[in-house]
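sorry for the late reply, my laptop died twice this morning and i had to redo everyting from scratch. anyway the thing you sent over, i finally got around to it. pasting the sequence first so we're on the same page, its 387 residues, then the predicted structure underneath. double check i copied it right bc i was rushing
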Amino acid sequence: MTERIKELLDSDVSAASTLGEEIQHRVSSEDFEWAALLGAELAHRAAQEDEDSSEHAFLLDRLQTALAGTAGQRSLRALMCLPSSLRAGESAQTRAERRLAQMVALGHRPSDIVPVVYGEQLGTAASDEFKACLLHELVLKGVAVPAYPLLRSFGEALVAEGHPLAPLPLHLLPAERALLRPAHAPQDWTWALPPATVEKQSDRPELRVSPEMRLRSAAVDPADITVPEVAEAMSAAVRHWVEESNGMVAAQEFWSASAVSPDDFAAVFERLPLTAWPTGESRARLYPADSDRVLRVLLTAAVRSPAYGSGMFGAYGRLAAWRSLGGLVGAAPEAPLPHTATLVEQTHWFIADPSSDWFHQVAWDLAVAALRPGGQEIAVLAATDTD
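ok and here's the structure:
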């Protein structure tokens, strides 16, 4: 079988799509031994000096996708025997493991994942980083972690060793209620939001500013108190837009001696000196939002790829979304997530229309505002990207 695979690669490596079809056929026929041998041969060839591995990487991707989408322990064992990436370097390996964890969580049942990955069936040892990401991808799916002792104990080990994902709870928080799949949802249901337009980000009517609102809030004079540390935290969900692509972020914090009523917030918002709405441009249309809607906006931005580069995937995307929420509500950097979650529920949330010239208005835009508990502090996060 190995010799036949070598012949296929030698003859068809320039026609990767043909081999891609062969991969799909073999996996759908449950020929998982062939799939594992192909993966081993691809890894061997990619490791050869001066070998161009771009087509081999394409084939490994097809192989991983096919096995990740075929539920069952046999296909999962074959997938776990494959290399996660053919590209050298810690960064490429880490990104590949995060991506693979998301694929496995979406395509396989927890009852199969737990014994194969966390029980480490013979020949399927996975890295702790992959298992950490997979654990939290399963949490995002609403899996009841306590029902699986191996999952629970691994999660406890992550906390003990101070893993970066350790702050995330092993259950969904109240603000994450919209991530749970509805009972009668269609097959293609997802919590991720479409490419950004305010109509798709907001699901509530626009707030109209009346003369009475302006009169009641006339004494409110918010001052910009933005500090780099808070702005960085607020921007966590979209940092890859800037680091990997052409993104821009404007994260600002304001304080007012007079408390702002949620009912009058739109009148105050239109007077804020906001970077994303330069002086002289028409003010943004504003929409009220629930906390779970804002979390979906931020989590979608974190998980989704920017114009260039890749997304953070589910586990680290969730971590980044909560860091942004923590910055927006003014939580202390080291505050436990349940405390941040309480502040998130107590905050009044708004989504702004990203319609000024500051926004590229291609497919990567967001603008959210938070009126913090007590009404004296306001935080606004705006971001945009383009190709």
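The longest helix spans residues 90-107.
thats about all i looked at so far, will dig more tmrw
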